[in-house]
Structure formats: C-alpha cells, structure tokens
Amino acid sequence: MAEIADAFAAALRLIVGLDAELAQIIGLSIRVSLTAVVLAAIVGLPAGAALAVFRFPGRRGVVVLLNALMGLPPVVVGLAVYLLLSRSGPIGFLGWLFTPAAMVVAQTILIAPLIAAVARQSMAELWAEYADELRSLGVGPARTIATLLWDGRFGLLTAILAGFGRASAEVGAVIMVGGNIAHVTRTMTTAIALETAKGELALALGLGIVLLAISIGVNAAAYLVGEATRASEASPA
Amino acid sequence: MRPIRTALFLLMVALVAAIGALPAAAADRFITVASTTSTEQSGLFKYLLPIFERKTGIEVRVVAVGTGQAIKLAEKGDADVLFVHHKPSEEKFVAEGWSARRFPVMYNDFVVVGPAADPAKIKGLKDTAAAFKKIAEAKAPFASRADNSGTHLAEMEFWKAAGIDAKASSGQWYRETGSGMGPTLNTAAGMDAYALADRGTWLSFANRKSLEIVVEGDPKLFNQYGVMLVSKAKHPHVKDADGKAFVDWLVSPEGQQAIAGYKIGGQQLFFPNANQAGA
Amino acid sequence: MSPAILPLKVEGLGFRAGGQVLLRGISFEVPPGRRLVLMGPNGAGKSLTLRLCHGLERPSEGRVAWQGPRGAEARLHQAMVFQRPILLRRSAAANIAYALDVRGVNGTERPRRVKLALDQIGLAALADRPARVLSGGERQLLALARAAALKPEVLFLDEPTASLAPAAAKRVEAAIADIHAAGTTIVMTTHDLGQARRLADDILFLHEGRLVERGAALTFLAAPKSPEAQAYMNGDLL
User: Fold this and answer.
1) C133: closest CA among A148, A231, A227, A149?
2) Structural domain contains residue B54
3) Domain CATH number, residue A123
4) Same domain, residue pair B33 and B162
5) Do A237 and C128 touch (CB under 8 A)?
6) Are B147 and B103 in a shared domain?
C-alpha cells in the first residue's frame, strides 16, 4: 500500500515542517479537549464518587443510564448541543455556536458520563476499604467525597485519560457544533475528515499519525507524573 | 465546608479557562456563511475569502455542509449569509421570508464520473438522462450522495427525467452513501461506481483510482449558485451590514472577476454570471 | 469533657440478616470508666455487637441508648479501632490530623495534638511515613493513636491484637491501658484469655448470638458458671 508509506512521509513532513496552520489546529484541539476534560472531571469525578458511596432510590437506574451514556454517539451529542446553542435554541443568545466554546460544551457532555462511570468503579473499591472508618469518625457527605477523590487520585487518572482520549478522538460532535471553520474551529479530527473528503488520504492519515503521537505524549506525560508523585509520596519526606 | 469551597474554586478556574478558550476573534468583525462542501472542498473559498477580507477587514467564517443542511442552518439563524446551489430551494427560502432576495453569483457544471472500463457504455454521451437510463439498465453500480445536497437534488432530477426509480434499487446497484461529495467520490473510486460530481470538487479530488469523466457538456449539467442575506426581520442578531457587504462584493465586477480567476491546473472552475437574466 | 454519653444502655438488641438471626435479646449496660470485654467463640456476635453500639449497623430490634445526644451526634464522642485497622492513604501524622479535623479540632491546635498522640504511642519517628508502608503492629498502634487523639468518652476495639506478633501485641495492650488511664471507657472484644485477664474489669460472654453470662472479670475468669463459657475456657469451644 503506497498510501500508508505516503502517510508516514506526510506525517513526518507535517511534524518537521510544523506550519502555522497545523500548529493552530493542534493547539485548538488540545485546548478544547483539555478544557472539556477539566470541566467534565469537575462534574464527573464527584458524581462518580457520590454514586459509589450513597444509596438512594433509583441509584441502579442512574448507574445503568451512566453506562449507557458512555457509549453515546458523538454525533447525537453534537446534534443536541447544536439545537441548544442554535440562535433558535434556548441558549442561542450566547452566540457560542461555531466557536471553540461550543466544542468544549459538546465534548464536556460527551465525556462527563465516561469519567463518572470509570471514577465510580475505582471509588467503589476505595469506599469498600474506607467506609467503616469514615462513618466511625462521623465524616459528612461532602467531606467523604473529597476524601475519596483525594486518596484515590491515582486511580482517577485513568478516568481522566479515558475522557481525554474520547474527547480528542471524536469528530461527530465538534464538526456539528464547531462547523469545521478554517482557523476558527478546525481541529485535528475535523481536518482529517476534510482531507479525507478531498481524497487526500495520505495527508489525512498523516494528520491521524500526528494525533496519535500527541495522544501518546499526553498519556506518557500523565503516566510519568503519576509515577513521580507516587514515588515521592512513598518515600519518607 | 472546605471541600465544597475547593470544588467551587476549581469550577471557577475551569470556567475562566473555558472562556479563555473562546476565540480571541470573538471581538473581531466576522460573518458566518452557510455554504456547500463543493465551494469549500474545491478550494474556491480558500482563494476567494482572503481577497475579500483584505479589502474589507471582515472575516468570513464558512460552515461547509450540504445544501439541505446549509438552508436549515440559515433558517435557524445560525448564519448571516447563505451561499448554495439549488435554485428551487433557494427560491422557496426567499418566498418564505428567510431572505429578502436571491442573487445569482456563478455556475459551475456537474460531470458524470465512472470507471474507465465503463460497464454501462455511456462514455461520450451528451444526454445525462439517457446515460443514467443506461446505467440503470446495466445495473452498474452508482454512488449517490443521498444527503439532500444541491448535487443530490440535481441527481434526483436526472433520474426523474430518465424515468427510473433508482431508490427502489437502493442497496443493490444504487448505493446511497449519505455523505458529502468527497466521501462519495472515495466510495465510488473504491467500488468502481458511477457518480454525479461537481467539476470543482472533482478537479481537486486526489483519490480518483480508475475514475474518469464519462459525461460532460450537457446544458442540464450546469449548476447555478445563489447567495442570500438572511433576513434581519426573522433573526435580529444577523450581521446584515457586513453580510450585505459580502453579498454585494460577490456580485460586483470585482468579486466576479476574482471568481473567474480561480483555476486548478489551468482550468477555470466557476463561471461568474451575476448579470445573466434568469440565472 | 463535653456532655457525657455514658452510661450506655443496650436493651433487647437483636440483629437479623439474610433470614438468619445473628443476635438476639442482648441487654447490658456500660458504666463510665470501666473496661468491658466481650468474649466468645467465633461467630458469637461480638464484633457485630460493637458495630451496633457504635452505630455502624442498625439493630433489627431493641435499642442502643446513649445519654444525651443520639445517633451520629453520640458517635462524635466515641472512637473505634477495627480488627484490621483502616488507615487513609496518607502519612501517619496526616491520618491523625484528618481525624482531628473531622472532629472539629482547629488548625492551630491540631499539630500539637498530632505530635502528642504520636509521642505517647511511640510512633514519633514514623510521623511522615505513608501509613500503608507501616508494619502490622505499627498500623494498629497508629490506629490507636488516632482514636486516642480524639479523646473519646468510649473507645471500641475489635480484636486489637488478633493478628499481631507478641511484642507488638504487648505495645498495643500498654497503649490501651494508657488510654483507659486517661479517662476513656473501653469496650473491646478478644479471643485471648490472657489479654482479658490483663485488661478487663467486666466480661460479657456471648454464644451463638446470645448473651450467656456476665460478671466481674476476676470472678468469671476464675470460675465461669455457664456450660458454654466453661467449654470455651477449656478450649473445647472455639
């Protein structure tokens, strides 16, 4: 397959050449996905922990719903956010449609359930360990959640990385609410969709390789930071 | 509670970060144009818009989707200007009051592309409807966009003229891709299928494999583009002054000349005809 | 000390789970200042009784009546150390500081109380060590130090030395004696007759979810009256 060889050559050219346009696209992709991850984590992590800790009527239903939402197609989220942000929609007056803010909103909605669901699992394990002690001490609900999140923070890294992965990889939602406008809302994935549409398959795959490289970089950085923090906490201060 | 305060603080930080992610250009002067994939993917906008932007300082943000979706966007007030290519739909758009007036801008033409082997034996025909009839009779694969785009609507008219109910064969020789021009050409190239394409996208399309032009030059293949300023009466937030500047420029001698100047490999893609009666 | 929650009156306590009766008709009283030891073979319901008294489980019948405040409020005057101590994934000092913070000890007072608790139990050198790298004995001592730092009126201890080496067990017993001497009422379970002899003022003997015999430690240990307790002391009932 000549195209695959061409793709690697294209990827190499893109990385080495790093023109302003590509740098802008990469920068926007990372900025949008990171912002979405931060927002989704602020909502998703405590929600996941709360689901692990509290027993309330309908809890099972919420867990099932959450697991189902994890698989929600991005294009459905995109459509819903589009209708929300459209000038004819309920919050259209914000003027966020076809801006990076709209993409942040869509990605946040897309990944918050994923982060919450993964967090719930790791928080449930920690809660099984801590429950008796925290109840014995009389720790209140908010403090319980905060304690679990802090003490289980290394496990939560997985949830956050999973969220970042889904956010940075999806195209259906951002292309619908961002509009794939050159220099404004064009991200790695929408650029790949565009180049594919133009039949520039090698360039599209080259962009894909760049995206993969960024994703590997982010994951490796998170892993190293996690290891380093863990190591420094395990040794006597 | 301290943790709650911490959470609120983090939320604030994130909101500030999110607002920081808003484009710096939000303060700049820009208009949003809902247009079609053919104008975007043929490279016309990339060539044309900087000329307009340099002249006026108005940034033009193009959301390139199918004609059907572009019209929907404009109706919902999510674009200031609509720039598409399906005259009946455009006239309906104006009749329903979404815009005060439609201006013809330019035309390009459609071509029928197909595998070099030409199983339906249509190469060189000048009558598109007749060619479509032969494709159906040969049950040769045909890739349709099936996305309510201008190109798709034009294709449907050719089937109608040929007296063929192509949709009845959907999933057999008639393949509905439900996607844009480029992806549909990718599909056609992959399965040696015929397809109707606009010449601009075809010329800039890089993944042709064995595809080549089999039918062209039929006057019915002309593809007229129109531009409309979205009505401020319908959507008060429409940037009508800047939008009007763009529309006016497109149909002005200067804009028309710029359109004529866009070429790929020495070939002119779009033919300005703002002053042609009935276009 | 803040409002007294003692004496504790346990009346007709019963507990069922999964269709099984695990505890029934347990009544006893815990007067202030005593060291009450619950004894009995495995599955007698000793730990469950502690958990019910501490409010970690809800009784199916009967009641656990503290003086004054009730429920979660009463729990703030108590502390409990579990058989396998539960330590937070933080340093030894941070574990104690956390508990003090939860119980409302203010930030300026906290470091002093943390240091005092670690000093008293002999763990000062390990203050900054992560709790999870400590040995079994050190973990149990840290859990005790954390409980003691709260200055509880009542301290519940569930088999505090069950899985410890003799030397570590000795340090734990000494720490319990110190905590009691400082004014805390002790309610604990044990399998160890020697430990009961060393630490108990009063003994409750449970068997198959029922309270079979009670009495002063010396009297009970010298000559248990019930056949079950006699069998247990002879090593026939484990």
Assistant:
1) A231
2) yes
3) 1.10.3720.10
4) no
5) yes
6) no
Alpha carbon distance B129, B154 (integer Å): 11
User: Testing the interface with A: which of B2, B38, B40, B232 to mutate, by most A Cβ within 10 A?
Assistant: B40
Residue B118 has a pLDDT of 96
Interface residue A139 vs chain C (CB under 8 A): yes
Average pLDDT on A152-167 reads 91
Q: Determine contact: C127 vs chain A, CB below 8 A.
A: no
Q: What is the pLDDT of residues C31-78, one digit of tens each?
A: 999 999 999 999 999 999 999 999 999 999 999 999 987 777 889 999
Q: Which residues of C are less than 8 Å from A138 in CB distance?
A: 72, 75-76, 102-103
- The class level of CATH for C8-233 reads alpha beta
Chain A contact partners (≥3 CB pairs within 8 A)? B, C
Using CB atoms, list chains with 3+ pairs below 8 Å to chain B.
Answer: A
Report the sign of the C-alpha dihedral through residues C139, C145, C150, C152, in that order: positive
Domain containing A65 equals: 20-226
For chain C, say whether A122 makes contact (Cβ under 8 Å): no
pLDDT digits (tens, 9 = 90+) for A53-110: 999 999 999 999 999 999 889 999 999 999 999 999 999 999 999 999 999 999 999 9
Q: What is the pLDDT of residues B19-71, one digit of tens each?
A: 555 544 444 799 999 999 888 888 899 999 999 999 999 999 999 998 899 99
The interface pTM score, or ipTM, of the predicted complex is 0.93
**CA–CA distance, B88 with B98 (Å, rounded to integer):** 14
Beta-carbon contacts of residue B34 (< 8 Å; ≥ 6 apart): B63, B65, B70, B71, B73, B74, B78, B79, B81, B82, B83, B84
Determine the Cα angle at B125 with ends B119 and B130, to 5°.
80
Any residues with CB less than 8 A from the CB of A5 and at least 6 apart, and which?
none
DSSP category for residue A90: T
**In chain C, which among 60-79 make CB contacts under 8 A with chain A?**
72, 75-76, 78-79
- Segment holding B99, helix H or strand E: strand B99-115
Cβ–Cβ below 8 Å for A35 and B32: no
User: Is residue A194 domain-resident?
Assistant: yes
